[in-house]
User: What shape does this take?
Amino acid sequence: MSIVFRYLTRQVIISMLAVSGILLLVFMSGRFIKYLAEAAAGELAGDVLFQIMAYRFPGFLELILPLGFFIGILLAYGRMYLESEMTVLFACGVSDKQLLMKTLLGSIPVMLVVGAMSLYVSPWGMKKVEGIFNEQRQATEFEMLAPGRFQSLSSGERVTYTEALSEDKRRLEGVFIAEHSENGKGLTIITAREGSQFIDEQTGSRFLVLEDGARFEGLPGQLAYDVTGFEAYGLKIRSGSAGEKELEEGLATSALMASDDPEHRAMLHWRFTLPLIVPIVTLLAVRLSRVNPRQGRFFHLLPAMLVYITYLGLLIVARDALEGGKVPEWIGLLWVHALFLALGLWLQFGPAWLYRRRLLKEARQHA
Assistant: This one.
């Protein structure tokens, strides 16, 4: 049985790693593209993108591993049913219960990894991401510039462009700035050959000192423009909004336990929910992986995925209900787990129980 257990575990793990890798690539690529767009718009610095993705990796992993393990069982066991390997195992004395127990035993490491990610590693990573976002919100416009791009800064009030930017981000070349005039005269456009950052030691204010340029002020579409040439022109650099924003995803599990906030309690239940998903979907997948060779290898995936989507969707609904105080905390999300646990037990043992009951009924009728 140890050889059989190692073989079954190896097949499931290989399928799980392949599926999880593809899912991670898809979801993380989508998130990275979003951050890349924010960096192109000047909302994020380009050098922090990979840090953010690295810190968010545990959060993706805690959601994808249960799904990857579920699909891995479906693919591995489905192939074994199609190629009659399961038939050989059953003929050699392996029962349905033994197959289920061996699979559940193999799911324990996955459940522990998901639990560690959900309860400890993922909140730590989100805390780091929050710190990066807070730093970016407090960064000056000068620090957010990227050469060769038109960037909308100051909440869309100012558009800045520079042809080149030094590595220390203190000198610019080929500067173009467009913003709405404060005196209501329309649009102000400033061009300069180069610029540098100046910090007032007394007030701590930062200024962009432009050199050898011109300032154009007027209403778009009209010919009346005020043109001013200058050798040096100072423009105050605005800092981001002060203050830090803290999300519940970044709170430590111990902090959630000590909190009475309904949103925090709902988040705590959600973190304990994720590792519980693994054994329940294992129970479901072992039964749903049975496939008739005439149906094809992937025929059983559609109903199985519908079951998983329904399971996850009900968990999200239950979390929202708990957050809104519509469900008592002692119930929490347990009712969803109990529902699908009952479904898994019925799929696994229900048909055999009905068959035995029918045989007993027929035996009594003939007696």
About this structure: The two ends are 41 Å apart (CA to CA). The longest helix spans residues 96-138.
